[in-house]
Amino acid sequence: MRSPLPGRSAKHVKSNAILFTTKNRTIGIGAGQMSRLDSVRIAVMKAQSSLKGAVLASDAFFPFRDGIDEAVKAA
What we know:
The chain is an alpha+beta fold and 75 residues long. It has three helices and three strands. A hairpin with a 4-residue loop joins strand 1 (18-21) and strand 2 (26-30).
């Protein structure tokens, strides 16, 4: 079952919002950066637990795959 948490949470975060979530909680948030890649790095750094199995959510699309690659590398 798809959780509505990532989408509901992302709309309340500033520009270039990146969230890592599980079924019922947010693990890491990165936002307000000029670069989506930097937002991913901040979300990874702020994560309070392992990102294995987490969902990556964003307030917009990833124009380049570098942010997604960074998230995969961290998981």
